[in-house]
User: What shape does this take?
Amino acid sequence: MSRIDDFNKFRQKMNEEILNRGTINTKRFFNLDSNVYKEGKLSKKTKELIGLCASTVLRCDDCISYHLLELQKIGVTTNELIECFDVSLVIGGSVTIPHIRRAMEIIIESKKDKGEKDEKE
Assistant: This one.
């Protein structure tokens, strides 16, 4: 089992625990978090890229991983992700670099797990 599988399994299990024990406020927040990334006036892709950029600037590795995996599901390329990280670097500065390193590892591992070629320019 890969680190990505471990991440997804842990996230799902703990979200279920939180929702089973949470208050109405917890459930409302989780619902809002899930629904805000759906297609609307902005595409899901745009919203997920914004989420990835914000998560990188805020230095939340779990959120970065989640948004990366969601973006890969909808076909975002590695080059698009790199440009998103460029925006994150400009906004967040060099403190984002360790998080971008870990993100790059996830991108590479995810492509390897799927048997996909990693594009480079």
